[in-house]
Amino acid sequence: MTEGRTTISHFTAWEDEYSHVKWGGAAPIDAIRSRIPEKGRILDAGSGNGRHLLPLSNYYNCIGIDVSTKALTASKEYLAKRDREAHHSTASITDLPFQNNSFDAIVCFGVLQHLLRKERETAACEFERILKPGGMIFLEVFGINDMRYGGEEVEEHTFVRQSGIIYHYFTKEELKSLFCGFTTNDINDVITKKIFKGESYTRHMVNGIIQKVSESDTKIS
Q: CA 24 to CA 40: how far, in whole Å?
């Protein structure tokens, strides 16, 4: 393993990335809507260009954060075109500018996989800090059997690409361990196949819903 290119600069690499990332359409939020009452306060942690923030803004009090100002600018434009509003803030999930116990839910799709180990641990602590007791985290990350696994290894199952962006590949057990202070509701491996030029490739995602321990659970323990 090497130590090169493993500094905070991998956050700034997202500015270049979002120079060519295109809007992929609004993402489904059925799992969130079925569990979080309308008007709840939701943080889209790593909101990118607003694929989840847009549909969430129809039902919730939303805040989108990202390390890329270009992504946030694009998100604002997409929401404005559809007469939707959400607060946007430039911030990292490793240092959230919010008060303790202030969110009903956190959406974090495809973000934790772009952090180094200590950063992932810090982000998990920050999520626990800002969530209300009983609040939920909706997660999705790359799994270790994914076709994209590999590159210049900087930590175990963690690689840095030419772009400077970090890619970490999780096991289900690792994701559970990262949030060991929470009530783990449901974490799953999602394996699909992709055919490219006649060859079959594996797409592996790990997703789940994790809940912060409620006040009643704390009193019982």
A: 25
Among 121, 124, 117, CA closest to 45: 124
Q: What is the distance between the alpha carbons of residues 44 and 89, in angstroms, rounded to a whole number?
A: 10
What percent helix, strand, coil does the chain show, rounded to 5?
A: 25, 35, 40
Domain 9-20+30-220, what fold?
Rossmann fold (3.40.50)
Mean pLDDT by 10 residues, the chain (221 residues): 53 92 88 97 97 97 97 96 96 97 98 97 98 97 97 96 95 96 91 91 96 71 47
Domain boundaries, the chain: 9-20+30-220
* Strands of the chain, DSSP E: 41-45, 61-66, 87-90, 103-109, 131-142, 152-155, 158-160, 166-168, 183-196, 199-211
Q: Two tokens at 69?
A: 């100002």
- Is the whole-model pTM more than 0.85? yes
